[in-house]
């Protein structure tokens, strides 16, 4: 009896392994074709589209050489993306953690109302208000300006929600002890609570930096000067029917994923926590 | 005087308000005002420097083939992503969570990798792989299997299929993670006592797993609706800038973008935004009505 059971398990195990292997190939295959394509001459791409064909003689680093040459804006876009991601993430984490912390720790009048507003903002997609937001950005002189990309979303509902959940779970008995020792309310937050919330900061830092790095719709609207673009917007301007810039498009896409993959390999846990943060139960 | 004021600023009463000031400011400027302004604009005809009240004219103008096509495309896309991206990741999560499975972490991470790419990169890949050229990846595959080559992005159903494959590629791993997180919260004793009562795998799945995953399923369902109706970048990338033949890839947000930024018809664009807002509110109300917001499900 035991042996038949074992046999059944191994068939099941084999079947599942096969299924997941197929899914893993489905997940990685498109990225593999992109990586292969980045080493092919652009004419090949225009003639044959994306495929896995690989001619030894045709392989070339030209595309990568090209994106780093001063003829293209690619490095400029890369720098813009890095600066925007850094400033956005730092500000977003600071401001959102303050709100989340206040909602978790203090019993004040607006507390429930603010929490409700946070949930409402989470439910209303940006797309609905982007037209008036664009008008507002014109009035505030935020067009073609990195602050125009950053400011409207810097106090983000999801991180507030996440920090609130996290801070609610922390012990609070030492808060009064700290007060007796002469620590101010702000001192408590910056010197005591922030270090305690470090894991939450890691998850949210990764989530927000990734969001900023890949963000498309809003930067597309606010930025229209070629030198000011971020990587996704810059790349999207290259996808013209004439295909004259495919080498930058392909090599640039690969080069944009690499830092994300590196961070993912080292900080997987925080990625996963951050990305599934919305599902955290209240 | 100043001493007293700074004491007040540092008091426990005022501190929480200081902490939430940035939120309140940003909420008023970048949320309340735009929402109010979207509603006002949707009743106006706007030419540079002048806004004229036109009643419901913008909403009446929405009753045109392009908008209805966009509404239909977005609705069909949303419905099908839900049909595909809830049951499949749920079952996969159960498989991946089972004792018999090996290399769990490897598969979990691998399936998650597409979610790390931007829609721009994903769209670039899919646009080229689903190109109409003989040598494109998909045409190589179908001709090798003995079928005719296809114009993937030129036909209504093939275009929808391409969008759905793209959605599955990017979202399967994330939804899988949501369901796996939900499975961690189901107490093992439930399965043990069910086994003692003689319940088989199927019965355990339908009687324990599915009902106890309800909260996370509702969450995934809700974000899928929001995400489905907000879909735009995928279509923007596949058809290089919102220009699909016969609008086969036009979405609600694509229509908003077209009226607001390509035709400078701000009033019409704002009206599309308000329609989207109504859809969002309906979804939220239905969700609240049937499932409750703060109700503890367990």
TrEMBL record, chain A:
The protein's name: Carbohydrate ABC transporter permease
Any one Pfam family match given in the protein's UniProt record, by short name: BPD_transp_1
Domain ABC transmembrane type-1 stretches: 78-267
Location within or outside the cell: Cell membrane
Family note: Belongs to the binding-protein-dependent transport system permease family.
Coiled-coil residue spans: none
GO cellular component, one term: plasma membrane
GO biological process, alphabetically ordered: transmembrane transport
Superkingdom of origin organism: Bacteria
Keywords assigned: Cell membrane, Membrane, Transmembrane, Transmembrane helix, Transport
SUPFAM superfamilies associated with the record: MetI-like (SSF161098)
Segments crossing the lipid bilayer: 82-106, 113-134, 146-167, 188-211, 246-267
Membrane topology type: Multi-pass membrane protein
Top-level taxonomy: Bacteria, Bacillati, Bacillota, Bacilli, Bacillales
From TrEMBL, chain B:
Main location per the UniProt record: membrane
Pfam families named in the record: BPD_transp_1 (PF00528)
All copies of domain ABC transmembrane type-1, residue ranges: 71-287
GO BP annotations listed: transmembrane transport
Membrane-spanning segments: 14-36, 76-97, 109-130, 157-179, 212-232, 266-286
Gene3D superfamilies from the UniProt entry: MetI-like
Record localization: Cell membrane
InterPro entries: MetI-like, MetI-like_sf, UgpAE/MalFG_permease
GO cellular component: plasma membrane
PROSITE patterns noted in UniProt: ABC_TM1
Alphabetical keyword list: Cell membrane, Membrane, Transmembrane, Transmembrane helix, Transport
Family the entry assigns: Belongs to the binding-protein-dependent transport system permease family.
Protein name, UniProt field: Sugar ABC transporter permease
């Amino acid at each position: 009896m035991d042996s038949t059971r074992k046999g059944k398990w191994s068939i099941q195990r084999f079947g599942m392994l096969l299924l997941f292997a197929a899914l893993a190939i489905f997940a990685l295959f498109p990225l593999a074709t992109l990586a292969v394509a980045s080493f092919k001459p652009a004419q090949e791409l225009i003639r044959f589209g994306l495929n896995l064909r690989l001619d030894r003689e045709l392989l070339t680093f030209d595309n990568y050489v090209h994106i780093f040459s001063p003829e293209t804006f690619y490095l400029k876009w890369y720098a813009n993306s890095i600066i925007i991601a850094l400033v956005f993430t730092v500000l977003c984490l600071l401001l959102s953690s303050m709100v989340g912390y206040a909602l978790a720790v203090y019993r004040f009048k607006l507390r429930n109302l603010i929490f409700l507003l946070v949930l409402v903002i989470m439910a209303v997609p940006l797309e609905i208000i982007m037209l008036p937001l664009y008008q507002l950005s014109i009035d505030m002189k935020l067009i073609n300006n990195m602050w125009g990309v950053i400011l409207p979303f810097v106090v983000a509902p999801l991180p507030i929600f996440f920090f609130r959940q996290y801070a609610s779970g922390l012990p609070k008995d030492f808060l009064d002890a700290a007060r007796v020792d002469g620590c101010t309310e702000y001192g408590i937050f910056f010197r005591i609570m922030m270090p305690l919330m470090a894991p939450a900061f890691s998850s949210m830092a990764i989530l927000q930096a990734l969001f900023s790095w890949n963000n498309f719709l809003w930067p597309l609207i606010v930025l229209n000067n070629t030198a000011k673009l971020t990587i996704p917007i810059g790349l999207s301007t290259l996808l013209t029917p004439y295909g004259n810039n495919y080498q930058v498009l392909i090599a640039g896409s690969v080069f944009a994923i690499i830092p994300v993959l590196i961070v993912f390999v080292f900080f997987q846990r925080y990625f996963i926590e951050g990305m599934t943060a919305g599902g955290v139960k209240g | 005087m100043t001493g007293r004021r700074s004491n007040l600023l540092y008091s426990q009463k005022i501190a929480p308000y200081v902490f939430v000031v940035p939120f309140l400011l940003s909420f008023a400027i970048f949320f309340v005002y735009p929402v109010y302004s979207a509603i006002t604009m949707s009743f106006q005809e706007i030419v540079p420097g002048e806004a004229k009240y036109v009643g419901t004219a913008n909403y009446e103008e929405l009753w045109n083939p392009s908008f209805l096509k966009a509404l239909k495309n977005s609705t069909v896309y949303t419905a099908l992503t839900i049909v595909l991206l809830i049951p499949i990741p749920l079952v996969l999560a159960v498989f991946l969570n089972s004792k018999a499975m090996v290399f769990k972490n490897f598969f979990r991470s691998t399936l998650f990798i597409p979610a790390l790419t931007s829609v721009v990169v994903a769209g670039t890949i899919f646009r080229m792989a689903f190109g109409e050229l003989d040598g494109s990846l998909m045409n190589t595959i179908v001709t090798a299997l003995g079928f005719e080559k296809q114009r993937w992005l030129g036909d209504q159903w093939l275009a929808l299929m391409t969008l759905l494959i793209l959605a599955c590629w990017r979202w399967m791993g994330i939804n899988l993670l949501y369901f796996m997180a939900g499975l961690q919260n189901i107490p093992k004793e439930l399965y043990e006592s069910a086994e003692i009562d003689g319940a088989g795998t199927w019965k355990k799945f339908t009687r324990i797993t599915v009902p106890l995953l309800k909260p996370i399923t509702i969450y995934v369902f809700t974000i899928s609706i929001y995400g489905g109706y907000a879909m735009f970048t995928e279509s923007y990338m596949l058809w290089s800038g919102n220009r699909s033949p016969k609008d086969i890839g036009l979405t609600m947000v694509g229509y908003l973008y077209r009226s607001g930024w390509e035709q400078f018809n701000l009033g019409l664009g704002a009206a599309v935004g308000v329609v989207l807002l109504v859809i969002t509110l309906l979804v939220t109300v239905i969700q609240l009505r049937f499932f409750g917001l703060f109700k503890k499900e367990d």
